[in-house]
UniProtKB/TrEMBL annotation:
InterPro entries: FAD/NAD-bd_sf. SUPFAM superfamilies: FAD/NAD(P)-binding domain. This is Pyridine nucleotide-disulfide oxidoreductase. It comes from Streptomyces populi.
């Protein structure tokens, strides 16, 4: 008997879910209500694509396992994407400048490109190497009962239709209506958590100035310990000889859409380096704002979910983009689906729950990291820090201070941030001892620039601090 899977949503999470499913199903249909662009172009309902995105090594490796023949990573690099060692970037954290280390290992390499390029490259790879079909249609509701989902009611070409399926995957993003659909089936017990710092993101494209072609990924982090609004910035080298600069501010310190104020905001960060860099660069776009940055998690793995339904990607949880984990969490969720398919038939009792529980591991890790920072900013909406939070924050702050001077500690923290190791790694006896001992060097007094980078910065005049 022919078996069908329906995936709701044609963005990254949906395409990767389809890649996970096609070997186990006779038919995989991706439902997408918008017309997908034939190239790396903006999409109507993904305004977050205008902002900085980074693919973590965990996400890159998950995509490799899901699409071993397509070489998505190779395609990205051939299209101009950059690779950046996480321990070789320019990073200014609450504890000061991180040292840059010459050691380059594959498990610490970030992939930097526009979200448009990543979405297009991935979509083309899936559709050109698998039998997955995209159908332009809008999902209206789930078919079935509280015990089992049997398909999706869709709207296509002005007509409603019941599309039957053995498995439905909701990967429709942060605008997902899955909770409403579940209520229609009688499922109302999905635990939800939310932490909202009122963060606003403002992003703008720049042409890389002559002499700064090799400038690395640069980040100025917010300091959550000052009782003031958190302001941060990222300068990300992307394809086409461009910088994608994203600035952010929590409630009371938000950036605006005025192009004239964009550079001023960057100059006013805890360190002005990003502002000075873009003051010499040609703007290539207007300023794009996004206010959809709250942390919100739906714990479907703890609910009495019906068989035949899996929820992945931003439909499960959304995060403050500061750690750049959303895309990689989506890839790891699809990988959890793929691995479960190798062990269990899609129609077996408990299949969907097992997938949801496995996918929740990376969701929980990313959500904890994001909210552990956001909960400290003024006027945050959501749960208040507990005594345990305060103790952990003190420990992590001290570890981060040590990481500014130690490659071993910095690399270990990076492995956790990039979702390659569990947070329990941070209390390993070796790291615990290093943290208790404290920094092994004096803090840097300024950004650790190479001679070429210094020459470019100096050509613009003294760097104010």
């Amino acid at each position: 008997m022919s078996r069908r899977a329906v995936v709701i949503g044609g963005s990254m999470a949906g395409m990767l879910a389809a890649a996970a499913l096609f070997r186990s199903m006779d038919e995989v249909i991706v439902l997408e209500r918008d017309e997908l662009p034939d190239g790396p172009s903006p999409r109507k309902r993904t305004p977050q694509a205008r902002h900085a995105h980074i693919l973590l090594p965990s996400g890159r490796d998950a995509i490799r396992e899901l699409l071993p023949v397509a070489d998505v990573h190779g395609r990205l690099l051939a299209s101009g994407a950059h690779e950046q060692s996480l321990t070789g970037m320019l990073g200014f954290g609450p504890q000061g400048w991180y040292r840059r280390w010459p050691t380059v290992t594959d498990d610490l390499l970030l992939t930097c490109c526009s979200r448009d390029l990543l979405d297009w490259t991935l979509r083309d790879a899936v559709l050109s190497t698998t039998p997955v079909v995209v159908r332009r249609a809008e999902a209206l509701s789930l078919l079935g009962t509280a015990d089992r989902v049997t398909g999706v009611r869709i709207l296509a070409e002005g007509l409603e239709e019941d599309l039957r399926a053995d498995l439905v995957v909701d990967a429709s993003g942060r605008g997902s209506r899955v909770e409403h659909w579940l209520e229609g089936l009688g499922v109302t017990d999905v635990p939800t958590d939310e932490v909202d710092s009122g963060l606003v993101y403002a992003s703008r494209l720049f042409r890389v100035p002559w002499g700064a072609e090799g400038f690395p990924l640069t980040q100025v982090e917010a300091d959550p310990t000052t009782s003031r609004p958190g302001r941060s910035g990222n300068l990300v080298p992307i394809e086409g000889g461009r910088w994608l600069v994203s600035l952010a501010g929590t409630r009371g310190g938000e950036p605006g859409a005025d192009p004239g104020a964009f550079t001023d905001f960057a100059l006013g960060l805890r360190h002005p380096l990003i502002g000075q860099l873009i003051s010499a660069a040609e703007p290539l776009s207007e300023v794009f704002l996004s206010r959809s940055t709250r942390n919100r998690r739906r714990e479907f793995e703890k609910a009495a979910m019906p068989e035949g339904l899996v929820v992945l990607g931003d439909a499960v949880a959304t995060y403050n983009p500061v750690y750049g984990q959303g895309m990689s969490v989506a890839a790891l969720g699809a990988l959890a689906l793929s691995r479960q398919l190798r062990q269990t038939d899609v129609t077996a009792p408990g299949f969907a729950h097992d997938v949801q529980r496995a996918a929740a591991r990376s969701v929980a890790a990313a959500y904890t990291m994001s909210t552990s920072q956001d909960q400290w900013f003024p006027e945050v909406v959501g749960r208040a820090p507990t005594l345990v939070d305060r103790l952990l924050s003190g420990y992590m702050g001290r570890m981060a201070r040590v990481a500014t001077t130690s490659y071993a500690v910095s690399a270990a923290m990076c492995k956790v941030i990039t979702l390659q190791e569990d947070t329990s790694r941070l209390v390993h006896p070796e790291l615990l001892l290093a943290t208790l001992k404290g920094p092994v060097m004096e803090p840097l007094t300024g950004p650790p620039l190479t001679p070429q980078e210094s020459a470019f910065v100096n050509s613009m005049g003294p760097l104010a601090v």
